[in-house]
Amino acid sequence: MQTQKKVILLSLAIGILLMLAKFTAYFITSSNSILTDAAESIVNILAGLFAFYSIYLAAQPRDVNHPYGHGKVEFFSVFIEGSLVMLAGILISFKSVYNLYYPHEISDLQDGIAIVAVSGLINFVLGYYLVRQSKKFNSLTLYADGKHLQVDAYTSVGLVSGLVLIYLTGLNYLDSILSILIGLYIIYSGYKLVRKSVSGLMDESDFDTADEIIAIINSHRKDSWIDMHNLRTQRYGTDIHIDCHLTLPYYFDLNKVHEEVSEVDKLVNHKGSSNTEFFIHADPCIPECCHYCRMPACVVRSEPKSKDFLWTRDNVTKNQKHFNSDV
Known about the structure:
By secondary structure, the protein is mainly α.
């Protein structure tokens, strides 16, 4: 977590410098679209401050009130960041519409273009770095912050293109039109962040994680693992919690069942990309399982094996054994 904090602090420091540079560009040019870019930098800093706090809080150990840890604060952090981005986009759009009807003079565009272009390049490099770090530490907060900075960089590209067009044509009203378009794009980007955070807060299924876990188990599946179903995934910050039902031969004693369950747990944690807490409910096999049971020379088999089920997201996530499944 210390490394993540340092990454966020670096992002904050650079964000403050870029904000000062963009406001300098606005005071030089009086360009409404540059003010739009500068206003979004304030959002970057506020979001970065909350991201720093959320990473600090997510690192706190579990306690009586938070038995699953504090990782979900990252979803709340992304919700705040997305909301701030949307609010900035809305305010920017309203101001731009006003300036479209009540325009003002723009000056020294060359200097403003240079400052915005350099700021956009720095934001893209920093955003790319944050996204890479987010994958390394499996941090949604770093991912959201990095994507936000990349969006800021993309808007800077559009802004520079528009400012060059204004400089070449002298059509100052294009400044407000450009600012409106950027504002709408910022609103859309904020919406995507809010949507991602809400899905996490509502425990929406993490299909990518489920597919990864199922692929790992399939590639190392033992004959004694007859059936797996009712697999559910939940993400709490960098940690993943999974529960499922695993069907084992009914004649296994308790020690053997514990051994099999532990093996699944160790397998996923060793091969998977995230720390995973597995809750596995062991089911005893029943005669209806025999036709797809892989156990060799089973003395209690009621019929020979005639079918094989490849475990997929469709059948493993259902709350029923595979003989009841249409898959």
